[in-house]
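hey so i finally got around to running the thing on that chain from the lab meeting. sorry it took forever, my laptop kept dying and i had to restart like 3 times. anyway pasting the input first so we r on the same page abt which one it is
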Amino acid sequence: MGPARPKRTPKQKALAINLDPKIYGTFAEIGAGQETVRHFFRAGAASQTIAKAMSAYDKDFSDAIYGKEPKNRYVTQQRLRKMLRYEVSLMEERLSRETSPKRAFFSYANTVTTINFDKTSRGHGWVGIRFQLTDTSDYNEIVLHVKFNENDATLQQETLGSLGVNLVYGAYYYSHNPRVLIESLYEDISLDNVEIDMIDFSGPDFKYVDNRLMSLQLVKNNMTDAVIFNASGYNMLPADLLYKKNIFAVRGSFRPVTLVNIDMFQNGLEMFMKDANADLEHTVVLFEITLSNLRQHGDIDERDFLDRVDILAQMGYTVMISNFSEYYRLIDYFASYSTQKIGIGMGVNNLLMVFDENYYKNLNGGILEAFGKFFRNEMKVYLYPYKDPETGELLTSENLKVSDHLKDLYKYFKLNNRVVDITQYRPEHSDIYSREILQKIANGESGWEIQVPEGVADLIKERGMFGYKPGYALHEMPSY
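ok and heres what got predicted. didnt touch it at all, straight out
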């Protein structure tokens, strides 16, 4: 390991930027005052750095500058990017490169709403920077979404100011290492004060950055509890995706995706759509992987992580990475965004873990409190049968065994149709176990190819995933 990175205060960072003759740009802040730029003014030597600072608070005036927004929504990613690009284009238009030699331009912007007077809305917003590292290079963008946790508007404004300084400083001094840049965003800020639940890097200096890995850093560093990205690898804002939607999720290791996973997903989703009287337009489908699963074999193996999500992406699925080891926390999270129907597809072995009281020792109300959160919003479990590899017994909701003192509780949820069996499953898949597939892949054995969805075996072999080493040609692979 190299020497520890020195941590600087917002004032020190602002002064370092101000004293750098190459850095020059604008600040446009809406919704929480000019909290970021004030650090640069107070640090001194700002005249050679700040081209302009503005806050177009009035919506009519803001529209006159940046244009109108659909549905009059101003705290959006689209609005932020408009602000960033407009301000840069204005500098390029009004300043000659001949009179501003060797200056790297930037525009910093935020559009936020802080906690309201009644404290019913805690506040959130978008923060970003568009910047070039040299006067001749193309522009990069870093955009992130924040959720404020502090219970006072003034404190939220101060947090936003420090975060903004950290972003500007990080853009110029840590662009070569985006992981360090992300960590630096919380310097002089407590993790409890603000949550970053979406981040996106783009531009020539980030062409090798995988934003899915950047999302993983947010969860890994406890900056947020969950991140979501679609099949194209694009990071999605959970609030935008989940708001007022029906939600169906399947949790697994997906190492690799097997025919059992897909059978559970397809049949469970079909039952959920009927029960919820829902359509796909108003339903979000998620394949969820927990951080604890990614850490199952020690520290997180990023290559292994990308192998899993690349396969899911090839199949067109949206992936969620979360800190929710316990299922009730997952449901609690979904319910914070939507009051619509929630369904979870899971195997019998997973449901038995839900009824393990050891998971709820940190709750004052124990397992009863957990179940109150787990079975909220008419949430339903769609249960996939599990064949015990030792006894050969097929376990369903009818014959699974929970602790004696929990039998009545389980019976209550079963009778109230909150735990239902997936009946249209494929019995021939009951002997498929992912751990056996992984062992065969690592050992160079054949036969596992017919236990994964079509196209998955090809991808595993082409990319050398999960320890695969070519042992026989692709044309020798068993047919489906």
